[in-house]
Each structure stands twice: as C-alpha cells, then as structure tokens.
Amino acid sequence: MSIKINRYKCGYCGACVGVCPGGALELVETWVEVNDCCTSCGLCAKICPVGAIEVNK
Amino acid sequence: MKEMYDLIVVGGGPGGAIAAKNAAELGLDVLLIEKRQEVGDPVRCAEGVSKICLSDHIEPDPRWICADLTGSRIYSPDGTMVEMSEEMSGGEVGYVLERKVFDRALVDQCARAGAEVRVKTRATGLIMEKGVVCGIYAMHLGEEYEIHSKIVIGADGMESKVGRWAGIDTSLKPADMETCVQYLVTDIDIDPQFCDFYLGNEIAPAGYLWVFPKGENMANIGVGILGSKSGDHRAIDYLDKFMRDVYPEGRIIEMVYGGVPVSGPIEKTVSDGLILVGDAARQSDPITGGGIINAMEAGKIAAEVAADAIKKGDYTTDTLNEYETLWRSTIGKEIEYSLVVKETFIKSTDKDLNHLAQSLSNVNFYSLSLKDLLYALFKANKKLLWDLRGLFRDVVNNNFEFKYKKNQFD
Ligand SMILES: Cc1cc2nc3c(=O)[nH]c(=O)nc-3n(C[C@H](O)[C@H](O)[C@H](O)COP(=O)(O)OP(=O)(O)OC[C@H]3O[C@@H](n4cnc5c(N)ncnc54)[C@H](O)[C@@H]3O)c2cc1C
Ligand code: SF4
Ligand code: SF4
Questions:
Q1: Containing domain of residue B81, as a range?
Q2: B245-263 pLDDT, tens digit each
Q3: How far apart are CA B287 and CA A53, in angstroms?
Q4: Prediction pTM value
Q5: Among A34, B23, B192, B294, who pairs with B283 as Cys (CB 3.0-4.6 Å)?
Q6: Nearest CB to A49: which of B164, B179, B261?
Q7: Do A19 and B177 touch (CB under 8 A)?
Q8: What ipTM was reported for this prediction?
Q9: Which residues form the 4Fe-4S ferredoxin-type domain (chain A) (predicted)?
Q10: CATH numbers and ranges of domains, chain A
Q11: Are A47 and B235 inside 8 Å of each other by CB?
C-alpha cells in the first residue's frame, strides 16, 4: 500500500475517491480503503480538505 | 430475499430517492440500496436550496426546513458589499434545510411509493453480461450476494464507482472539484434570513466562503476552494482563519467535509442497462456547487426513461440515450452556462473582484440568484464581458431561458 490514510483525521467525505484516476480507493462507510491499483500519483492527498492522506513515494 | 427487480437504484441521496420514488409510482418493481446505516448521515452539504424547484419534488415540511431566506449579500475581498433582498425578487428565495431529516423524508416517500429499501447495503460491483449491466453485487453485514435487474441507476454521489465499473470514467481532476469544509456554528450574531458569500483569493482561492443561517444564532459556515489550489493550505485552514477573524466567539457543534464536482457535463452518463444521476453524473452547478435540485431533476428523468425502456423491453444505450438528451437540454444547459462563468471567475484577481463589486454597489437587483449576480458582476466589466460574450449574447437574445430557474444556490 503506497498511501497512508489517517483515519482519525478522515471525515469519510469521498472527495479522494472522486479524484483517484485508477479507482484504487473505496469509501466503505466510515473509512476509506485502498487497493493495489494505487500508483502513488498523490491526487487524493492534494484534494483531501483536511490533509488526512500521506503518499509514500 | 428477492433476487430480481425491474430497477436497482444505488445510493439513497436526493438523486437516488427521487429516481426510486418516481419509478415505483410508474409501476416498476424497484430496489433502492444505501451503504450507510442511516440515510443522510454524515451530511456533505451547506443545505441551501431554492423554493420553487424543491416543491416540484416534495411538499415543503417544517421538520426539515431550518431557515426561510429573504436575501443575500456578497462581500468582495476589500469588503465591498452587494446586497440583494426580497423586494427585488418577488419573494421567492430559498430554504436552508436539515439534510439529515430531508434525505430520510425522501427515502421514506420512496418506500411509501412501493420501492423496497435496503440500508447498510453497499454495491461492490456490477453484474455484466456481454457488456450489458444486468444487476449488482451487493454486500450487507459482511455477506456478498447478487441482485439482478433490467436497469441499474447509479446515484452513488461524489465517490461513485458504478459508472467506472461499466467503463465510464467519471474520475475528476483536482481542478474539476471544489474541496470543502464546513462547521455548524452556534451562539453567533447573524441575520437568520440572510445568507452571506465572501469572495477572494485570501479567503477562498477560486471558490467562496458561505454563511447560511440555520435559525436564530446558528449557521453553516463553510469554505470551498478549487482542488488545484489545495496543498500547503487546505480548505480547513481557510475556514479556521475566517472563524478566528470573523466569528471568534462561535461554538462549533458539527463538522462537514466534502467535494463538489465543478467539471461541467461529462461525456457520457448512460451505457447498456445503466443510467447515472446526480453527483455520480457530475451534475452539480460549476459556479455555485448546488447539486440537490439537479440530482432530483435528473432522478425523475431517469425514472421516466427507465419506465419507458422497460415497457419496450429494450435497455440498450440507444433507448436510454433519451435520458442524455433530456437532461442535457434542461439542467445540462444551465450547467454549461455556469461552466463558462466559472472559467472566468477562477481567473479573477482580488482587484478584479473589488472593481466589479464597486461598480455594482448602485445596481438594483431584480433577482436573488447568485448566478444572476455573478452574471451582472461580469457584465459590468468590459474585459470579462468580452470573455463571456457568447453567454451574454444568448442571454440577451433570450435564446436561453432559465427554465429551471433555481435562484440562490443552484
Ligand atoms: C460542502 C458541500 C456543500 C454543499 N452545499 C450545497 C448546497 O448548499 N446546495 C445544494 O444544492 N448542493 C450542495 N452541495 C452538493 C450536494 O450535497 C450534492 O450535489 C447532492 O447531495 C447530490 O445528491 P446525490 O443524490 O447525487 O448524491 P449524494 O447525496 O451524495 O448521495 C449518494 C448516496 O449514495 C450512497 N452510496 C455511495 N456509494 C454507494 C454504494 N457503492 N452502494 C450503496 N450506496 C452508495 C452514499 O452513501 C450516499 O448516501 C454541497 C456539497 C458539499 C460537499
Ligand atoms: S478526502 Fe480526506 S477526509 Fe475525505 S474521505 Fe478522503 S481521506 Fe477522508
Ligand atoms: S495516490 Fe493516486 S492512485 Fe493512489 S490512491 Fe491516491 S489518487 Fe489513487
């Protein structure tokens, strides 16, 4: 997994899911899951309104 | 549990609920699924909506109306205020809703119309046969199962996957999304009948900050910035700064996060056996971010097209394309016009915005629409007018009537 989502910061709004180009993210209910399609592009980290996502390059 | 329906609607927001309700009323055998355990919660909305369009879909009910607005004010970066009030608009402004209660009322309505509803049930994929959508994989309490249908409506919001599963790329670029944070703030001195908008690159880069009253001394205060401007400073940082500067005495009793699509119409919203509505189809207004009414309008059109298709026994793209035609010629038109305004708006400097506000301080507004105001703002500036010439030519010649006139927010 190449991104880290801080679930204590996340407000499960789904904005990150909306920008992920490869569909690697899924807003389940009150948490976001990431699968191996993630390319570490960083768009999700950029869009998150509160900065809950960190990308490991 | 039943395994076959005429229609499955994925998502119990305003778009999905109105689609399911109308489809049930048209005699279809409908299932609505919603992944959350409580419809409408958590909220992802500033809850502003126009009165006229709302009552086309549901009878207004004090249980979900928090404020009845009579006007609005826009503040430019240097504090110049442009006010529009009810006398100039003939009395039709907007409501501020309680979305948690509103969304549930819509789902209640659709259940009473005969649709089956399953909550805490998430679509995890589409059942496809030779490229044709014919049902969904769903998960409820950790168990996965198949449910078949003739048509699927994807009303699964910002985080929509339904379109992507069918090969429609609905992913947005950061520049096509406003990223937002909002607080419900209490114990503040506000006008309970006015909503305020603040513009400026220091306040909300390529977006705006809003104060929508939710009753006496209480308001939704939020900010949306264009995703491409988000990074070192995020929506939450802009909002915290505004709160410190303007409402330091305010008490925050709820937090809301969210993204709003501002891409304008996407290329495709149907495929064989599938229709997308609302935020899933990126149908929110690119300038105001309003999406409740558009989602409901689209939901209604989708239900009617689905009912016709099922009557004919033909669920191919060719038949469902009727939906594309209908929404693009109505709500889609407005979305396109707003997109033109947005492209100009996001390029405006603080100086441009101040200049525009100053040139408007003496203008009488006959309408209370934020969009109309922005049109007027840009109209007052020759350079911007030139950029937007196509738009004004159409408006002036009445080629484009705001048939779906939605005032304030949409
Ligand atoms: C901060 C903010 C402020 C806003 N302010 C306004 C405003 O003032 N006025 C206005 O008109 N609009 C506003 N909007 C936009 C408005 O909230 C949306 O346009 C509107 O909710 C869209 O309705 P919808 O039914 O398409 O989607 P949603 O309301 O998002 O509903 C989608 C539903 O689908 C469910 N779902 C998602 N995936 C699945 C799945 N796989 N399986 C089952 N269920 C699923 C979700 O849980 C959700 O309940 C705002 C948005 C934000 C983020
Ligand atoms: S954008 Fe941020 S807050 Fe929203 S769901 Fe993604 S990680 Fe959570
Ligand atoms: S880094 Fe890029 S690919 Fe990975 S989850 Fe985020 S948006 Fe998707």
A1: 69-93+174-261
A2: 999 999 999 999 999 999 9
A3: 27
A4: 0.93
A5: B294
A6: B179
A7: yes
A8: 0.97
A9: 1-30, 32-57
A10: 3-52 (3.30.70.20)
A11: no
